[in-house]
Specification:
The structure holds two protein chains of two kinds. Chain A is α+β, with helices and mostly antiparallel strands. Chain A has one domain. Chain A has helices at about 1-50, 60, 130-135, 165-190, and strands at about 55, 70-80, 80-90, 95-105, 110-120, 150, 160. Classes of the chains: A alpha+beta, B mainly alpha. The interface of A and B includes residues 6, 15, 25, 118 and 122 of A.
Chain lengths: ~190, ~200
């Protein structure tokens, strides 16, 4: 009995000391981590919709909490008026969920840009979705009709060419974008 | 006590990856690019050195029947510290290494060195042992990553080497490539050793 208490006490002291060290490091790094995360997110938003003076998170206004694909809605303002919308969407790819930012312009009703935030696709195949040339395939597409993934060079305005040997990934990204597009058309184009 | 011997044994003759085949999980997973390998190697070396120092300095007061939980708590503490530091200062590297940073806690090289070396030797010897083992791990990881990145992606440190027409051998970036490369490296090293012995 004595022995058990002694051992337990020793473990307690060890854990307390280690915990102290960890919480001290946490106190030092927490503000830096928060700042860099905020910066990364802001930069991502600006990359997808560059022509904005202010970007506001209006997720609560537009989305119900159980939406499966749409995760976040950010509205871009210029001179006090909404000019663009940036969605964070999450869709299921080949190796797990793919988180994508997609921006729409209200005036021209087109897709401005997309950006893959995180993914677990196969390196060298689906992971090519993060390359700028894949985002370029979406830029300027009209937001009035659903996009369709094709394997050849696109003929129609609403067709997007898939990444070679990564059709599942291309379709997943496009599915997320289509969900956002639908929401954008209903809430921002037809409502005004 | 010969410190140089403690340090250099981890580099080749007792290399944790190439000779003892420890910590394979992280080695196979993060050796897809040299940058990842360097980051992982650095993080593991830091944990290895710090854990070795602490464990060696408390080796005389730790009751032997609870030494493993004590070692694990110490190792986990240092892993969390390096995790927070990497998240704060090198967020890109932190994201690309992902789950393998927290998994350093269960990397058998670190617990192995704590149990086999630091718990029986002095502080300075343990420091050099950790440094040597960590560097040996990093070197093996980088060598593996070098072949995989060059052949599998046509890149080195993220810079394209062969121009746009190069068709990389994707299998090298995928998990089988890690096994194939590691197998070739081990075969080569064994052959060298055989030659030396004869």
């Amino acid at each position: 009995m004595r022995e058990a208490i002694k051992l337990g006490f020793f473990l307690l002291i060890t854990c307390a000391l280690v915990g102290l060290g960890v919480s001290y490091t946490n106190a030092l790094t927490a503000p830096i981590i928060a700042e860099s995360e905020k910066l990364v997110q802001e930069q991502g938003l600006m990359e997808v919709y560059s022509d904005a003076e202010e970007i506001k998170d209006e997720t609560e206004k537009y989305l119900s909490s159980e939406d499966s694909v749409l995760k976040q809605v950010n509205v871009a303002y210029k001179a006090g008026k909404p000019v663009g919308v940036i969605y964070t969407v999450e869709s299921k790819g080949y190796g797990g969920s793919i988180k994508t930012l997609v921006g729409f312009d209200i005036v021209s009703c087109t897709i401005t840009n997309i950006k893959i935030l995180s993914h677990t696709e196969t390196p060298g195949l689906g992971a090519q979705a993060t390359e700028p040339w894949f985002a370029e395939r979406f830029q300027g597409k009209s937001a009035t009709a659903d996009l369709e993934v094709v394997k050849q060079t696109p003929q129609d305005g609403n067709e997007v060419q898939a990444i070679t040997a990564a059709t599942v990934t291309s379709k997943a990204v496009t599915l997320g974008i289509n969900e956002a597009r639908n929401h954008f058309q209903v809430n921002f184009i037809e409502a005004f | 006590m010969n410190y140089w011997k403690e340090f250099s044994k981890g580099l080749l003759s007792d290399n944790p990856v190439l000779v003892m085949l420890l910590g394979m999980c992280s080695v196979l997973a993060v050796s897809t690019s040299v940058i990842n390998a360097l980051g992982m190697g650095f993080a593991a070396t830091f944990v290895l050195v710090m854990a070795n120092i602490v464990i060696s300095s408390i080796r005389k007061i730790v009751p032997s029947n609870i030494r493993i939980p004590v070692y694990i708590v110490v190792i986990a503490g240092f892993v969390t510290i390096i995790e927070l530091i990497m998240k704060a200062y090198v967020p890109d590297l932190y994201t690309s290494l992902g789950i393998f940073i927290p998994l350093i806690v269960v990397n058998c090289i670190i617990l192995g060195r704590a149990e086999a070396f630091a718990s029986k030797n002095g502080i300075i010897a343990s420091l050099f042992d950790g440094l040597g083992m960590g560097l040996g791990y990093t070197i093996a990881l980088c060598a593996l990553a070098f072949f995989r990145e060059v052949i599998g992606a046509g890149k080195l440190m993220g810079i394209s080497l062969f121009g746009a027409n190069f068709q990389p051998a994707l299998i090298m970036i995928l998990p089988p490539g890690a096994f194939i490369t590691l197998g070739c490296m081990l075969a080569f090293l064994n052959k060298m050793q055989e030659k030396k012995a004869s």
